[in-house]
Amino acid sequence: MLSTTERTRLGRAKHKARTARTDLYDLLDAGSVCHLGVVVNGAPMVVPTGYGRIGDTLYLHGSTGARSLRAGGEVCVTVTLVDGLVLARSAFNHSLNHRSAMVYGVPRVVGDEEESLAALRALTEQFAPGRWDAVRPPTAKELAATRVLALSLEEASVKVRTGPPVDDEDDLGLPVWAGVVPVRQVFGAPEPDPGLAPGTGVPEHVAALSGALAPSGGTVGAR
Known about the structure:
This protein is α+β, with helices and mostly antiparallel strands.
């Protein structure tokens, strides 16, 4: 079960809250970008960044010089997945079908090299499963230039909205179309780097993202 604190308890629309920890895991595993909220020099800063999850820990990374990763103190991380545009008969009742998570905590800087590599692997796999084993691993110099933060998922909330618009009863007879327009993330056909070595085809783990197939050195087309 997810923790219940004053910060994670929904004040409104409590029926949208999800309390199963698996709902949090599924949402995080389906996303690729989070928003990291920190306070830098007394001013709020919200930074979009990639992330990876291992168990109950969320990992973030960036340059050792990044202000957002050097701020210290408490942070708030959010992830939102939009599933549909909810178009109502009135402007007031428009909404979004979505899944969102909010995580609070004080992240720790990862100093152990083994954990850093595991975290970077999780981050890489979050974008494209199978990618870590296909690429060159980080060098000692690259690791030294990278700061990895570990944030516990202990204090977190999940909010989900599904279904059609909820219009006022007096508006139901209006001659205005209402309903849901589904929103889905679709990957296009892979576009090769112009500097690829001759004969380098699209690997299976990349082709799997968009359902594209290509022989070694061949072209890629969407199925």
